[in-house]
Structures are given as C-alpha cells and as structure tokens.
Write a structure and sequence with these properties.
32% of the residues lie in helices and 24% in strands. A hairpin with a 2-residue loop joins strand 16 (265-271) and strand 17 (274-280). The protein is globular and about 75 Å long.
Length: 481
C-alpha cells in the first residue's frame, strides 16, 4: 500500500492498494489507469472504476472533474509499467531475469531453467501461469500485463526468490508490457510465421522478437539458436555477450550427438572443451534444443554443469508431451503444439516410435492469426494418419468457419480428416476409433483448463476429457463382452 503522493507529485494522502487497468476488476483503494487497448479506450470506463471504489485515476485525456484525484500523463500505456515499478518498489532490481522468446519452445525452456536452478531459488512466469517454491497460479497471458507481472515479481522477491525464468511473447513486446525492463539473460529459440494478425508482416514480428536481445543488459548474455535460419538477423540486435547452441562445433554449447528412445533421450553436449553425457526424460529432437538453450541460460547465471546435472532427471513440462496413463492398448498424448513448426516436429517424432496410426484432434484459436490456419491444416494432414478438426478458443468467430479454413488447402490433396466442431465429441470420437498401438494426439491447449467461447469462458481440460472418454469406452466394451 502507498499514498498517492508517493507515486505522483501531488499533495494527497489518498491510500492506494493496487493498480488496475480493467474497471470491472477495480476494488476499493485501487488506482485505475486508462490505458489504450486494441479495441477499447479505458477512459470510457472511468465512472465504472470510480463506482467500484477507485481512489485515483490516471489519464492522458481531458476528462473533467471527478470525485477522486485525476493524474494526467502524456501516454498511459507507457506510464503503466513505470507506475507498477514505483508501486511495487522495483522488484525487478532484486531478481536476475532470464527471458525466453521464440515461436516454439518458450514454455519448455523456461520450465527447464526453473527445474535446473530449483523452485526454491527460481520463479517461473509464462503460458502455464506462475510458480515458485510450492506456490502456483494462473496469469491469463503468456506474458501478463504490468500490474500482474510486477505484483508477482514482488511476491517472489519477498519469498526469497533470486532468479525469474519468464516467457516473453512478441505480442507482449508489441503491446509495451515489457517496456522499461532489462534482462540479465535473453534466450532466442526460433521464429516462424505466427501472430501476423497483430504484427501484419513477418518483418514486424522479427523486430518484436529482437526486442529481448536489445533489452538484455550489456554485461548480460544473449543466447541464440545457431541452427535457426534467422539467427544472424537476431544477433545484430544483441546488446549482451552472444552465446550460441547448435550442432556445429563452433557453438558455445554444441549438440554433439543424441538418441531418442520412447522413454528418454540420451544426449552428448560439448561445453568448454568437455563432453557431457545427459539422460533426459524429455523426448524429441526439439527438446534436445530446448534443453541446450536452458542449460546455456543457467550456465550464464554462474551455475556449473556439475551443479545442474542432478536436476535433469526431474524435468517435466506440464502440457507438453503428456502421455496419459490410460492403461489401454492404444496411446493418448496431450500437447500444447499449435504452430505449424511445432506440430510437424511433434508428429515426425511420434512416427519414429513403435505405433500404428496417429489420430490428431486439433483446432485454431479465434481472433488470432488466420493466415496460419491453412498451413496448420496442411501440416497436420501431411504428417498424421487421420485428423479431427474442432474448436479451440473460438471467441467471437464461428468455430465451423475456423475449421473450414484449416482444411481449405489440404482438402485438395487429403481426405484423411473430418470436422467435429464440439471438442468434447471430437476427443470422444478420436478415442473410440483408436486401435491397438494407435496414438491419439490432442493438440493446442496442453493442460490448460478453459475454452474461450463467444459469450463466456468455460472450464475445459483436454486431459480430463480424454480420461473420461477412455473410461466411457472401457465401460461400453465391458458391457459388450
């Protein structure tokens, strides 16, 4: 809690209990800042915020007299992170920030870093919410808005956390959520076409991704995937010392060799002239790269290979490569893969295993990049035995239209699919059609617990739905014997 006079040069003893940008979430004592959203000008919700108990309002327009103090600034969007830093006493200064950007691998890499360092010392913020020590929770966005971000950082600092591994999305840089933050270590995984509904051009997307490298401190480290086609472009933006990982022997951390089995991945990394043989529980070539990025990120903060190797056995990323314990002759796997590159990598890996068919359940989020949908559908049908297209967070869009866009190009060459708009029914159908040694893959949401529909957000969890469908099938089969 702070007095308004501690936040702004104003003679006021009004007490401020929190910072809010959504008038519906305002509680008595909050300061409401009228940021400009994509589709909303929050100056229009001042009266609602005051009705809910706002103690002060921050604006960038003339709004007339109100019943609470009004503070005018030049740009409320740019003011928001600065206000949050002041209100929460600059918690970022007491954390070593390790940030990851890229189309694929952000969640896995940050989660691995937290595991390698330890939850007692390292926090996590990203797609899977936030966590530190035994505390877990949701954030709503991969990179949350400043009021949530700085509140969480304050909590972590107050609980003895020294490091924070966080996902930094291109949208977060585009929306200015990360302005005025600097990072001790910035990690770049890869870039493919994504979020062009926001960025408009691929060049703009690359520019937003590169902001992490520019905001890495000069005595910090920029860690790049040398095997990614845009590595050289990203390197030009680096403000810190450049470290690289990849298969070539000239990398800081070399991926010398690896063998993927159905249960683990045996990897040889070379670092500082020495080979390290790693037994990782994470599967797939993409996780060889994610682990390399995470190891290098952890080493950049002063840890040694010898310190972190014992923690590798504990690696687990919720919602990623979750092979469910169904006790059936077929397999069910839930994964967050939702980009063409991520989907292709996952399906190619799955078909190296001892399985028969792959049956994929997948959709594409509404009010997001529509340009990738035909590419997604093509990628799925090029690599899967069969696909069921369904809804995934359709929001205001018609989910049938989204499904039609997914198959708009692929249907010219493929007939190995069907559309079942209801996700519950789609998962049930996939489970029911699985034969011995088939693998059902439910993609796009991982272990998330919601679906955003047109008029409401409902509880929905792919893993729970899959288990329920499996039990229903078992019950029917038992009755038919």
């Amino acid at each position: 809690m702070k007095k308004l006079s501690e936040l702004y040069n104003i003679d006021s003893n009004v007490e401020i209990k929190g910072v809010k940008i959504n008038s519906k979430e305002v509680e008595p004592g909050d300061i409401f800042i009228c940021t400009m959203g994509v589709n909303a000008d929050r100056h229009n919700f001042i009266d609602s915020a005051i009705e809910n108990g706002a103690s002060a309002i921050v604006v960038s327009k003339e709004v007339g007299e109100k019943s609470v103090p009004i503070i005018k600034v030049e740009n409320t969007n740019k003011e928001l992170p600065l206000l949050c830093q002041r209100f929460y006493d600059n918690p970022q200064n007491n954390l070593e920030l390790i940030a990851v950007t890229g189309t694929d691998g952000k969640t896995s890499t940050t989660t691995i870093i937290q595991t390698l360092i330890g939850k007692d010392k390292c926090g996590y913020i990203g797609t899977n919410g936030y966590s530190y020590k035994d505390v877990v929770g949701d954030t709503g966005n991969t990179t949350p808005d400043a009021p949530i971000l700085y509140k969480l950082m304050r909590e972590m600092v107050d609980n003895g956390i020294k490091y924070l591994a966080m996902e930094t999305s291109s949208e977060a840089f585009f929306r200015g959520r990360l302005e005025n933050l600097t990072f001790e270590t910035g990690i770049y995984t890869n870039i493919t076409r994504e979020h062009l509904n926001i960025h408009k051009t691929f060049e703009n997307l690359v520019e937003c991704k590169s902001m992490l490298m520019k905001q890495t401190v000069s005595d910090g480290y920029c860690i790049l995937n040398r095997d990614d086609a845009l590595c050289d472009t990203m390197e030009k933006a680096c403000n810190g010392k450049v470290l690289t990982y990849g298969k070539d022997e000239n990398n800081t951390l070399r991926i010398k060799d690896y063998k993927v089995t159905p249960h683990n991945t045996l990897i040889t990394y070379t670092y500082d002239g020495k080979d390290y043989n790693i037994d990782s529980p994470l599967l797939g070539e993409f996780n060889v790269y994610n682990l390399a990025a995470a190891i290098l990120g952890t080493l950049s903060r002063g840890f040694t290979f010898e310190e972190i190797i014992p923690n590798i056995k504990d690696l687990f990323v919720s919602g990623r490569m979750d092979l469910l314990d169904t006790k059936t002759p077929y397999y069910v796997l839930v994964d967050y893969a939702h980009t063409p590159n991520g989907i292709a990598n996952l399906l190619k890996f799955v078909h190296t295993l001892d399985i028969n068919r792959s049956i994929v359940v997948i959709g594409s989020a509404g009010e997001r990049d529509p340009f990738k949908r035909p590419v997604m559908g093509q990628t799925v049908l090029d690599n899967a035995s069969y696909a069921i297209f369904t809804y995934e967070d359709p929001r205001s869009e018609d989910p049938k239209d989204i499904c039609d866009q997914l198959v708009s190009e692929a249907k010219k060459q493929h007939d190995n699919y069907e559309i079942i708009v209801d996700r519950h029914e789609a998962i049930k159908k996939a489970i029911d059609m699985a034969n011995d040694k088939d693998m059902v893959l439910i993609l796009g949401k991982g272990n998330e617990t919601y679906q955003k529909l047109k008029t409401e957000t409902i509880y929905f969890n792919d893993e729970e739905e899959a288990y329920h469908a499996v039990e229903e099938r078992k019950a029917r089969e038992k009755l038919s014997v």
